[in-house]
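Hypothesis: this fold can be encoded by more than one sequence.
Test: take the structure tokens below, design a sequence, compare later.
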């Protein structure tokens, strides 16, 4: 039996049933993590499942009734979930982006002079007598509208972490809307659109990392999801080719390693004709050109970055690195987002008949291999497969290509892998101080990142010496 679009009531009931299962599972897991606390006595354990329940129910209604503004509703609902934990989960990698908007708005400069702490941390680079962020500045520039009220007020820079959190959540919420719109343009049934969008927003590093602080991944997923939507609409006119190019350029400027995925999307526009291709290429140039000009002025060359010599350290044996980025107990893609196995099957099936899917599938494999060679594949202090967060819009598109799969196989596979990913990523965002999440966050190093007891499900049954003294995430 093939997938059939569910009726309105069935769509709502499935969303509610999924959220109810999540509610029970998360409460049970939280009870075990806290060694026997009352099942419903912890209000914090209810925030994520209840907010997810409301989001799924309303999104199901919007889709089942054919509301044309369903992407807007999905983005707004995702934003509510992203900010529901009331916490910024940041690291040193995000500090520059969090401080820079204040300097831009108050002093009209991209330096961090006066805000960089002493002694200089690793995320600061000294050049030409000034302090600069080690990382691309795109996330900070996109955050300017949110920071404007705080920057114009009397408060001190860095004194309002809410601005950082809201900026990151907004960028990711916009990407959720684009993902839903792209899936609808791909012709996926409403039930599958709802499931794919929900897993993208609530059961992936989009929730546990990108929406929590100003990492590079927030603008990265926004650019790539917008590009996929525009590429799906390219048949409606060359202007959508221009939009696809602009979004691809944004993704690259936010995180230069996204160049492989951006190239895959642009190649997927080839059948749309020379005019669309020309507009797409023209649109892809401005944002990377601005970043190249910044890097030339600060670091000495358009291709130079704040990473310095580290940017050439693709030295890890490929087999070892690929196993790590896919299956590591603390950073593995499959270990924290198991539904990607279903999505990968969908990409393979869809690639046979769809040029866009074929090109982005190749680009996705190339990106996985790139990170598999990176010497610091674990990504520092973080939760789950942070480096691979930017791939998530492609995985969502892959899920939408499973509509022709036998229903008796697809539904159990999505249910099992989806609920597991919901729990795993919800833990990282809504219980970041729990022993289970803490064991993942602090695995900063190849040896620690590969320790099996650190995988959150293993922490339900295994106690590790020294847990009580480990650093706690913010």
């Amino acid at each position: 039996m093939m997938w059939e679009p569910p009726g309105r009531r069935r769509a709502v009931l499935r969303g509610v049933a999924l959220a109810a299962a999540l509610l029970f599972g998360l409460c049970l897991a939280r009870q075990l993590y806290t060694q026997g606390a009352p099942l419903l006595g912890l209000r914090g354990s209810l925030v994520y499942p209840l907010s997810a329940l409301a989001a799924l129910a309303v999104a199901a209604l919007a889709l089942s009734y054919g509301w044309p503004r369903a992407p807007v509703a999905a983005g707004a609902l995702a934003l509510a979930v992203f900010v529901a934990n009331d916490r910024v989960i940041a690291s040193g990698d995000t500090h520059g982006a969090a401080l820079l908007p204040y300097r831009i708005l108050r002093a009209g400069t991209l330096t961090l002079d006066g805000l960089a702490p002493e002694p200089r941390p690793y995320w600061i680079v000294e050049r030409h007598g000034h302090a600069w962020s080690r990382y691309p500045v795109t996330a900070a520039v996109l955050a300017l509208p949110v920071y404007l009220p705080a920057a114009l007020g009397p408060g001190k820079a860095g004194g309002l972490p809410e601005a950082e959190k809201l900026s990151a959540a907004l960028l990711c919420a916009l990407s959720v809307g684009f993902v839903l719109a792209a899936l609808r343009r791909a012709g996926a049934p409403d039930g599958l659109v709802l499931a794919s969008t929900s897993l993208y927003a609530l059961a992936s590093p989009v929730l546990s990392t990108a929406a929590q602080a100003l990492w590079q991944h927030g603008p990265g997923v926004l650019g790539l999801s917008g590009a996929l939507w525009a590429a799906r609409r390219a048949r409606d006119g060359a202007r959508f080719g221009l939009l696809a190019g602009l979004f691809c350029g944004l993704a690259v400027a936010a995180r230069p390693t996204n160049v492989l995925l951006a190239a895959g999307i642009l190649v997927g526009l080839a059948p749309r004709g020379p005019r669309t291709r020309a507009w797409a290429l023209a649109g892809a140039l401005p944002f990377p050109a601005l970043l190249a000009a910044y890097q030339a002025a600060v670091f000495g060359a358009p291709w130079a970055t704040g990473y310095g010599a580290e940017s050439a350290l693709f030295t890890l044996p490929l087999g070892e690195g690929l196993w790590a980025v896919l299956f590591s107990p603390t950073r593995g893609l499959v270990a924290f987002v198991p539904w990607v196995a279903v999505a990968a099957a969908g990409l393979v099936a869809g690639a046979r008949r769809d040029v866009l899917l074929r090109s982005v599938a190749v680009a996705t494999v190339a990106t996985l291999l790139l990170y598999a060679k990176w010497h610091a594949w674990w990504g520092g202090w973080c939760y789950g497969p942070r480096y691979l967060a930017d791939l998530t819009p492609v995985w969502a598109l892959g899920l939408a290509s499973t509509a022709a799969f036998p229903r008796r196989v697809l539904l159990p596979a999505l249910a099992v892998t989806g609920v597991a990913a919901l729990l795993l990523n919800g833990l990282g965002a809504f219980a970041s101080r729990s022993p289970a999440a803490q064991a993942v966050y602090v695995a900063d190093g190849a040896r620690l990142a590969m320790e099996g007891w650190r995988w959150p499900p293993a922490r339900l049954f295994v106690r590790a010496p020294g847990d009580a003294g480990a650093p706690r995430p913010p």
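Strands lie at 124-127, 130-133. The radius of gyration is 21 Å.
Hypothesis status: open.
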